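Sequence, please.
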């Protein structure tokens, strides 16, 4: 309990008593091949995992509860739980058309998994991303 000027009591303020723990791991590999002077290919693979959570909050409540202050804090720490991972696999290549011009192609597959949906809702899903382009070497 925190006493605020003129003897008013403020209950349930536990900001300094919270502990947020987060963990993250990233594994990345990229392999490049040069089958010719003007041509190169690559393969990339990426795995990212992130977890985070608050410890359970213990809040002191007053003996007499005001109707509008009768809150249920029992699952509040779960609102910021984080459990996400994604895989990314891609292949691509480029070809030097001229001494200052290259063209490239790339395709990437991504699988995103969100196992704690409190923060942003369920964002799980998969997608492909294909790119074609050119690079001008100045």
């Amino acid at each position: 309990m925190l006493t605020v000027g003129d003897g008013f009591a403020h209950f349930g303020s536990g900001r300094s008593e919270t502990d947020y723990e987060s963990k993250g791991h990233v594994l990345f590999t990229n392999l490049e091949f040069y089958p010719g002077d003007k041509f190169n290919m690559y393969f990339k693979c990426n795995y990212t995992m992130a977890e985070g959570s608050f410890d359970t909050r213990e809040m002191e409540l007053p003996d007499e509860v005001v109707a509008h202050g009768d809150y249920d804090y029992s699952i509040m720490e779960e609102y910021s739980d984080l459990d996400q991972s994604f895989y990314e696999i891609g292949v691509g290549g480029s070809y030097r058309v001229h001494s200052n011009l290259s063209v490239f192609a790339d395709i990437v597959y991504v699988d995103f998994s969100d196992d704690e949906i409190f923060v942003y809702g369920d964002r799980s899903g998969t997608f492909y991303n294909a790119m074609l382009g050119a690079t001008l070497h100045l």
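The two ends are 67 Å apart (CA to CA).
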